Amino acid sequence: MGASNRVDGGFAEYSGHTDNVFAVAWSPDGTRIASGGRDNTVQIWDPLSGQHFLTFRGHPTCILALAWSPDSQYLASSCTSGLVHVWQASTGTIIHTYRGHVRFVRSVSWSPDGTCIASGGDFGDNSVQVWRAFDGKQLYTHSQYRVFSALWSPSGTRIVSSCFEESVQVWDAMTGDKQIEYHGHHGPVYATSWSPDGTRIASAGHDRQAHIWDAATGQQLCVYREHTHFIKAIAWSPNGDFLTSAGNDTILQVWTAETGQRLVAEYRQHQSWIRTLAWSPDSTIIASASKHTVHLWPWQHSRY
Fold first, then answer.
1. Does the pTM of the predicted model rise above 0.85?
2. Share of the chain above pLDDT 90, in %
3. Contact between 119 and 85 (Cβ < 8 Å)
4. Is the dihedral of CA 10, 16, 19, 20 positive or negative?
5. Cβ of 13: how many Cβ atoms within 10 Å?
6. Residue 219: is it exposed, middle or buried by C-beta count within 10 angstroms (0-12/13-18/19+)?
7. Residue 119: how many CB atoms within 10 A of its CB?
């Protein structure tokens, strides 16, 4: 599949997809971006030039989530039919297909040591399933109603998961035993993000709020209230200084992680809802997707 890239006023736009993009993931080495969505493809491309490297067509239905392995060699991708593929990023060769879910798999996350994957299922199985990345052996299932997000902690010892119900759970990554349950939101919690040092968690959802809370105690630290519609994506900058959030109000907002109170900058180039976003590993660029395009925003805090 061909892809195009244009730069307009410093903003790059990747338009290789033919339908809505629901997932964007930056490779840990910073050299590639993977994006996937309703056209049933995952596309890998160069974030600097927009050059298209590879199109993966292994899914029969819409792509919902993507995650790179820590060594940037493999990708895990999930779709609405319940499949999770693990495949080689350089060739598109499928290493393993995990079939433990029934339908919509909205989240995939690699363990920091690259050995396991946590995948979160929405309709049908209502669970986070933890399994070995390269042979699919299931280690355990953590039950939760309609899972939207499941992310491994930076230390690899815990997983945070959010769901259609108001709660966010933090649990032991080895056993699945629940440690903390956060109840600060009102309505479904669509997205979560760990701080790079693993001490805090950001969560956001249907109530138009983003919360920062203590990952060890569940104590709420601050609430960000600048969005006017549902928040569908949130991500901590790798340097730990900022959070960015976006959703149905079409505006990408960057705000201070220390206090959670100060809006630092906004990106208003999207014309429709935003479902996914990702920081570059060096915290200088933000990728976000709306409809069938992915925008790259060269973020430099010194400009604001």
1. yes
2. 87
3. no
4. negative
5. 15
6. exposed
7. 25
